[in-house]
Design brief:
- By secondary structure, this protein is α+β, with helices and mostly antiparallel strands.
- The protein has a single domain, classed as Aminopeptidase.
- Helix content is 38%, strand content 23%.
- It is built from four helices and four strands.
- The chain is globular and about 30 Å long.
């Protein structure tokens, strides 16, 4: 499958106020978000170099079947480790924190928000 096959699912999980689909697709085109795909899933990741020196591989989105997503996460983590990244992070819903705990992910920071408008 290709990105176009997952486009609607990706659009449905993005918070358009933070990361509109047009921006995500622009970042993909510019090489700032890398797509990883297998037969049943796709994920988008960014490499982030923080001012303090930490190098992070960050999962922006995932779509498709759960096992396919988990396989891609494992692959990206292995490759990021080999490339010298210090940490892998994922922007996600709470269910994924529970699912990924067995793969060594743990909650390090939580975003709490309140709509003001």
């Amino acid at each position: 499958m290709a990105y176009a096959d997952y486009r609607a699912e990706i659009a449905s999980i993005l918070d358009e106020r933070k990361h509109p689909l047009w921006w995500v697709e622009s970042e993909i085109s510019n090489g700032n978000i890398t797509l990883r795909e297998n037969e049943t899933a796709i994920i988008g990741v960014q490499a982030i170099r923080h001012p303090g020196g930490l190098v992070e591989v960050h999962g922006m989105f995932a779509a498709g079947e759960r096992e396919g997503i988990l396989n891609l996460i494992d692959e990206v983590c292995d490759q990021a480790r080999e490339a010298g990244c210090d940490v892998a992070t994922i922007s996600s819903r709470p269910a994924w924190a529970r699912i990924l705990k067995s793969r060594g992910f743990e909650m390090s920071q939580q975003t709490i928000s309140k709509e003001l408008s």
